[in-house]
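A reminder before we start the practical. When you read a complex entry, don't treat the lines as separate problems. The point of joint prediction is that each chain is placed relative to the others, so the output describes one connected object in space. Small molecules and nucleic acid strands, if listed, are placed in the same frame. In the example below there are two entries. Take a minute to note the order of the lines before looking further.
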Amino acid sequence: NAGVTQTPKFRVLKTGQSMTLLCAQDMNHEYMYWYRQDPGMGLRLIHYSVGEGTTAKGEVPDGYNVSRLKKQNFLLGLESAAPSQTSVYFCASTDHSFYGYTFGSGTRLTVV
Amino acid sequence: DQQVKQNSPSLSVQEGRISILNCDYTNSMFDYFLWYKKYPAEGPTFLISISSIKDKNEDGRFTVFLNKSAKHLSLHIVPSQPGDSAVYFCAASLTTAGNKLTFGGGTRVLVKP
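Here is the predicted structure of the whole assembly.
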């Protein structure tokens, strides 16, 4: 099925460990985004990309890095995980239209 | 400071009645507004949107109203159905800025049969 696929779905990390979250879309969308969802705070933008090879910072970029080497993939990296990064992470993509994003089903990350 | 706020964290409504969800924003430059619906363990899904040049948009049971002078939008669901029980997020966009969305904190809706 067409859409946005996030891997892994769940992960537990120890403080200081690193990991990469993968987002893949098969809709040929130009724009891709990483958000984190925390209780009462909605979704906050971490990083985004407006095309292959481009990345830009969002509202809460500290502690995260991203790469968009291929148009269909958007990777989110945590170099040294901290408990404050415990959250649900959502990837989304859109084309140039204004009719909203397609979201993945999320990655629940716990940092202990 | 949150640029998009949903001041009601939860709402309970009887099946068949109207659900009204509210959203306020502070940035007058926002030019496009959207509502998303989210079920547990799933990503948000797009529900309905409105451009800043309009004051109302309707799609079936869902209507979004925009009051630019008050920087306020609302979502009406009529009639409410048990399957509408979910978390609803409003979002605002500056369409000239990479289509980034700024989300509110969400309102959890419970429709009682």
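Discuss with your neighbour: The longest strand of chain A covers residues 31-38. What might explain this?
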